[in-house]
Each structure stands twice: as structure tokens, then as C-alpha cells.
Amino acid sequence: MNETDRGHWGSRLGFIAAAAGSAIGLGNIWRFPYITGKFGGGFFVLIYILLLIFVGYPVMNSELLLGRKTQLAAVGTFKKLAPGTPWVIVGFMGVLAGFVILSYYSVVAGWALAYMFKSGVYMAVGADHGGIFVSSITSTWGGIFWHSVFMLLCIAVVAGGVEKGIEKWSLILMPVLVVLLIILIIRSVTLPGAGAGLSFYLTPNFSNFSGAGFLAAVGQVFFTLSLGMGCMITYGSYLKKEEDIPLVARYVVISDTAIALLAGFVIFPAVFAFGLEPGAGPGLTFITLPAVFAQMGAAGHIFGFIFFTLLMIAALTSAISLLEVVTAYSIDEMKFDRKKATIVAGVLIWALGLFPTLGYSTLSHIKLIKGMDLLDSFDFFANNMLLPLGGMLTAIFIGWYWGTDKALEEANISASRKLGSNYAFLIKYVVPIAIFVVFLNSVGLLG
Question: How far is residue 447's CA from residue 441's CA, in Å, rounded to a whole number?
Fold first, then answer.
């Protein structure tokens, strides 16, 4: 395969925009603010930042350096560094995780896309926002349509290649996302009564923090950075040798965290200003917030559109990295050209996504893991099993098989501030243990 097919990032800024875009997704906009408020406000944020430093940052460096070392995606990386061993399974787990996650992620992103065009419906004062949301997700053909539109957007971007597709659109979409977020923050914090929401979000509440809060913080750090799913190994494989891995990893971690923190300044002041209860997950995003926008009068239409545009952009920048994981596998291992690899991967993922799409309508009777519907079952399998196992095994691979000396040599080739013994200790001991505890908890083996 020639280098044109595989490609490289055209600039450091382009890589940072793409990698940060991969990390910044739907979870940053609604899940992080919610669990922050639930588990102690400012104290949870402090714990979260410490875990970013001691867990997220080392794993981010690890995945990027593995990809750059081999110039191959996840499967090829483990094949090259551990030929003839079972370690290649870790690479396949990453590809499978990307495949499964995008299949249902596209469904939820399709909801956000649909809501961009539904402001006239949910903006009516007194509208049944819960009923509107239920009717949206239980619409058989509506769900398929928006899922299909979103997947076509992903395919179009990834088919353009690394520099002219992923990098180009990340450099456009990420600044737009930041601008939209700032607009929403200004509107939200200036609402009468917004102070109660800020207090809920930022005031340290030690009584609300618990072991469950710590595990939630570890899980949020790990999942929000797109670790364990092959994304950062794949993106790292497009880095040139002169790139400073520790530096760009810091930029990505900081960018992802900043967006998550800022999202709280949009959601909580607005929710509390109108005397509503902060919900969780889709309920907060698609039921509570539309109710907030409806009470803003004519301006609510504008801010509602801006919010769901923001949500869709965050989803798209994450989704293209997931599609790239599967596409890069097909390019590296099956020798497809990029357009063929992208279309085949995109169509297969779209087809799998029909199951969670229909899981709220014609297939609503099917319950898989722990009695959950299809979308939640897909999510549990990928996020609670594949991702933590993949991240833990990657850390073990570097720390105990390939060797931290080799990892440090690769990471520090062009590093201005070099990784050292602290990294080696964290990746050998702290990271595997922390992720293993989260894995045991997520599958119900702890308490």
C-alpha cells in the first residue's frame, strides 16, 4: 500500500483538532455535567482532573506512540510489535468496539440531527416534550432516515482521506463548536436565576461524593478520551516522526476537558433558571432542555437550533474517528483503497445500526443484556466490556510485554518535555489496576 492511501496529518493543529474532535462527543455535552452535579460538584471536578493526569494522559500517550511507531492501525500495530502472539486480539477488540459503538452512536446522533429541524414542534409553550421525544425515537422510518443521513455524512468525510477529509473538516467543525458553545454559555448564565444552577454545578459537596463517584470519574476519563477503541492508535499512525507526542496528547486532553467543563455552564444555569430538575442522559438533552428553550420565547428557537447543531457537530467529530478505525483496518489488512474501505465499512455499520434504531419500535420486544433494549445492550457491550478491557490490555502490553523503555524511546523522539519514570510507573501499575476496578464494577462484580 502506498503512502497516499494511508496519508499523514498535514499539520499539528489539524491533528489536534481531529483528535480532540474524536474525544469530544455526546458524553461531554450531557453526561459530564450531570455526573459532576450528582457526585459533589467542584470536588468531583478535582478528582476528575487528577484522574485525567494519572490515567487518561498516560494511556493517550501510549496509544499515540504505538500507532506512530508502526504506522499501522490497531490490528497491524499488535501484529507488528508482537508477531505470532495472541496480542493481536487487542487490536481486533478495538476495531470491533469502533464498529459497534458507531452503529448505535449514529442512532443517537440522528436524534440530534432531527431536533435541529424540529424547533417549531418542541418550542410551543406547554408542549409535551417527553411525548415528542418518545414519538421521535419510536418512529420506524424516521429513525432509519436520520440514522442514514448521519452515516452518509460520516462516510463523506472519511472517504476524503486523512488530510483532505478528516483533518479539513475537523479544522472547520471544532472552531464552530467552540463558538456555538460560547454563545450558549453567555445566554445561559445571564438568565434570571442562573446562579442556582452555577452553585449546583460548582459548589463542592463532599457528602454527595462516594466510591461510586470515584468509579464514575475514572470511567468518564477513560471513555471520553476515545481510549481503548483503536481511535488514538489509528490517529497516531498518521503522525510524522518529528511530532511531539507528549505535547499534542496534553493539548487533546486539555481540549476535551475544557469542552466538558464548559458544557456544564450551558446546561445547569438554564435548567435551574426555569425551575426544572436536571435529568440524566437523553432525558436531559431531548426533554428537559427543549422545555427550557420553549420558555425563552422567540429567541428559544434560535438557541434550541444552536444547541442541537452543537450536539450534532460533537457527535460527528467523534463518529468519523470511529469510522476511521474500521476503514484503516480495511486499508491496512485487506488492502482496499480508501473510498472502497470507507463505503464498505460505512454500509456494514449502517446495517448493524438498524437494530438499535428499530429497538424502540418494531424490535422493542427484543431484550438482550440484563433485560436492556438493543441500543443499551450495544452500549453496555462496547463501553462496559470492550473498552476497559482494551485499555487495560494495552497498558499491560506496553508495561509488561513490549516494554516501557521502548515506549519512552518512541514517545521522546521529538518531545520538548520528555516522558520519564513517572509514565513507566503509571502505565505498569496505576492504569491497569484503575481500569480493572472500573471493569469489575461495570459488569456488576463489585458489590
Answer: 8
